[in-house]
């Protein structure tokens, strides 16, 4: 099972962080294609059975695309992966203010 953690690299208001984190957690808990009328919402489930190197690249690309598409207030700076001996993966996503939106 994948566990997501988020870290903001820029200073962001606490209420704004709470709203952004709620949106991101909703996006990343869903499997892509499971929400009618918004089939692109969620992460691709193909990644579950791949080896760790492929998993990291595919998931990181998917995370960047989904954040761009569904949470325009932030952008992904980087994504780190930590694999546990239990087979779980902890995914840490570093976020910064989006350059596209200008002001908050």
Layout of secondary structure:
Elements: E1 2-8, H1 14-29, H2 52-70, E2 74-83, E3 89-97
Helix pairs in contact: 1-2
Q: Determine the oligomeric state from the structure.
A: single chain
Helix and strand run? EHHEE
What is the makeup of the main sheet?
A: 3 strands, mixed
The DSSP helix count reads 2
Give helix % range. 25-40%
Average of pLDDT:
83
Low-confidence parts, pLDDT < 50 over ≥5 residues? none
In the sheet with the most strands, the strands line up as 1-3-2
Structural class: alpha+beta
Q: What's the total number of strands?
A: 3
Supply Rg. 14 Å
> Tell me, what's the shape?
globular
Strand content: 25-35%
State the end-to-end distance: 33 Å
Question: What would your notes on this structure say?
Answer:
This protein is of the alpha+beta class. The chain is built from 2 helices and 3 strands, in the order E-H-H-E-E. It has helices spanning 14-29, 52-70, and strands at 2-8, 74-83, 89-97. The chain has a 3-stranded mixed β-sheet, covered by helices on one side. Helix 1 packs across helix 2. The longest helix has 19 residues, at 52-70.
Briefly characterize the structure.
This protein has 104 residues and is α+β, with helices and mostly antiparallel strands.
């Amino acid at each position: 099972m994948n566990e997501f953690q988020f870290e903001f690299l820029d200073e962001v208001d606490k209420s704004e962080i709470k709203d952004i984190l709620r949106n991101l957690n909703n996006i990343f808990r869903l499997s892509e294609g499971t929400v009618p009328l918004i089939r692109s919402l969620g992460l691709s489930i193909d990644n579950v059975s791949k080896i760790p190197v492929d998993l990291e690249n595919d998931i990181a690309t998917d995370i960047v695309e989904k954040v761009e598409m569904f949470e325009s207030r932030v952008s992904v700076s980087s994504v780190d992966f930590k694999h546990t001996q239990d087979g779980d993966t902890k995914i840490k996503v570093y976020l910064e203010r989006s350059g596209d939106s200008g002001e908050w």
